[in-house]
Design goal:
Layout (H helix, E strand, L loop, with lengths): L16 E5 L4 H12 L3 E6 L2 H21 L11 E6 L5 H13 L6 E4 L17 H22 L6 E6 L27 H21 L6 E7 L1 E6 L13 E3 L2 E6 L1 H8 L10 E3 L2 E3 L8 H14 L6 H8 L7
Parallel strand pairs: 1-2, 1-4, 2-3, 4-5, 5-6, 6-10
Antiparallel strand pairs: 7-9, 8-9, 10-11
Helix pairs in contact: 1-6, 3-4, 4-5, 5-7
InterPro entries: NAD(P)-bd_dom_sf, SDR_fam
EC number: 1.1.1.300
Enzyme class: oxidoreductase
């Protein structure tokens, strides 16, 4: 990303702490790198320590190159702060261990970017007996968010954010059915890999809405994004950051870029903004079924049930309580 980036080039508070899931590669890498270059402390949460450490070294090298070029807004003293913490979102136990490790570190948290995800692939199930893409793209990162939000609320900051990296692909999801989100009904015969991916992106947009209903008096706002795009040849580099942010139009494939994700995470004018889905750094329309309040609450109810062994009663109570807008 060169000088034409759309996100603000303003130095961030050096004490601001940002977690970027899947921050070792693809758009997550660019998001983590630029936020760190603007001054925040960044934790990249991913599976592979080796790949994460390689990514951090590459970020530091690219930071020095940007500094030599005189890139506006980036910090000019010292080095960027990027830390690796291990998590495997295909495992609820691993996700919970990450949560406990981060809590015990004593760090504050101001921004959570839920970027990690899987794209097109065969039908697989996790050790938790959930369909793999559903768990990695949505369920485990929902678990992460609801556990870490109290840290954000007590961070002392008046602008904390959760960015859910979805996709315009959510428009192509199956009609919502709460009884089938876990994927136990799927077989090799009825499995559609793109529609399955689209379903997981739909759940993220719905998550934005049901979380914000419960955060109106909070310092936390939740937004969702579709990554910015550039066109390239059809079929080239079919997988992008293990997050399949692709949308097919004729003979071109539109691939991921990180501007919108960074914009949603740091733009000062978005302070307190909720329930907005951004594409190309502008508000965009979500699908009609993602805006169905009854379905949003049904998704939340099923999610809490699937996570009951990993969340304490006070968190269950907070999220299962019906907001006055629905009562």
């Amino acid at each position: 990303m060169g000088g034409g980036t759309s996100f603000p080039r303003e130095t961030l508070d050096r004490d601001r702490v940002v977690i970027v899931t899947g921050g070792n590669t693809g758009i997550g890498y660019e998001t983590a790198k630029w936020i760190a270059m603007l001054g925040a402390k960044v934790i990249i949460a991913c599976r592979s320590e080796m790949r994460a450490l390689e990514a951090i070294e590459r970020m530091k090298k690219e930071y020095q190159e940007e500094k030599q070029k005189g890139t506006n807004g980036i910090i000019q003293d010292g080095d960027i702060y990027v830390q690796f913490m291990k998590v495997d979102f295909a495992s609820l136990q691993s996700t919970k261990e990450f949560i406990e490790t981060f809590k015990s570190s004593g760090q504050k948290l101001h921004t959570l970017v839920c970027n990690a995800g899987l794209g097109l692939g065969p039908l697989e199930y996790t050790e938790d007996k959930n369909e793999l893409v559903f768990q990695v793209n949505y369920l485990s990162q929902f678990l992460l968010a609801i556990h870490l939000m109290p840290l954000m609320e007590f961070s002392g900051a008046d602008d904390c954010r959760i960015v859910l990296v979805s996709s315009d692909g959510h428009n192509l999801a199956h009609p919502f059915n709460a009884s089938s989100i876990q994927g136990k009904h799927l077989t090799e015969a009825n499995f559609e890999c793109f529609r399955n991916y689209a379903n997981s992106k739909l759940y993220q947009v719905m998550q934005m809405y049901f979380m914000n209903r419960r955060l109106k008096e909070s310092n936390i706002s939740v937004v969702s994004t579709h990554p910015g795009t550039v066109e390239t040849e059809f079929g080239r580099d079919m997988e992008c950051s293990r997050t399949c942010c692709i949308y097919c139009f004729g003979h071109t494939m539109k691939f991921c870029r990180a501007e919108t994700e960074i914009y949603a995470a740091i733009a000062p004018q978005l302070k307190g903004i909720r329930d907005v889905y951004y594409a190309d750094c502008k508000p965009a329309t979500t699908s009609s079924q993602s805006r169905n309040m009854e379905n949003q609450e049904a998704l939340l109810k099923v999610s809490l049930e699937l996570l009951k062994d990993y969340i304490p009663e006070d968190i269950v109570h907070r999220w299962s309580t019906t907001p006055t807008t629905l009562a």
